Amino acid sequence: MNMLSESPRVVTIDASDDLDAAVAALVLANVEDPVMRWIFDTPWRVFTYAPQLYRVLATDAFHSGSVQWTDDGRAVACWQPPGVEHDGSEVAAIVREGCAPEKLGELGGVVEQLQHYRPKGPYWYLAALGVDPVAQSEGRGALLMKARLGECDAAHLPAYLWSSNQRNVPFYERHGFEVQAMLRVSTCPPMIPMVRPAR
């Protein structure tokens, strides 16, 4: 890994004007994500619906004061704090509109399975993480993870995520997350629930 010679700072987004830039970084970072490309399976669908999906995730995190990014705008993490439950209806509507109808049943089956791996009691949930491809492997994702996970450890809380890209699993494992399962239904790429136990 090429660590940054001048590390950017991790800051909490506190102005809605910054959400456009955060969404753009998330879309760029995840444009090759296997599950994203399976759901939105044409270039038009990706660039029509992925920005809508990431805007909902970023807006939800913004309203709960838990969307962070590096101050150079290259990396973004959208978290859901303990005790906060976001209404998933907007995300579901975007997926229903943008996904080929024949895939919706398969997708619903996997998403239902994911719910069984969420920790009991309060926890932090990582809804989205992305680093601009031109700035990957320079330590920005690690900076974002360490910032939030430090809060988790101070409060002795677990963290949860599900990875839609197997290539990212070692990154999360380096930050203490443990694979709970490899979930796959029919042609949908694997979704991997991961939990970082309370410390």
UniProtKB/TrEMBL annotation:
Keywords, comma-separated and alphabetical: Transferase
N-acetyltransferase domain span: 56-199
InterPro entries referenced in this protein's UniProt entry, alphabetically: Acyl_CoA_acyltransferase (IPR016181), GNAT_dom (IPR000182), Trichothecene_AcTrans (IPR052523)
Origin: domain of life: Bacteria
GO molecular function per UniProt: acyltransferase activity, transferring groups other than amino-acyl groups
Protein name: Acetyltransferase (GNAT) family protein
Protein source organism: Paraburkholderia rhizosphaerae
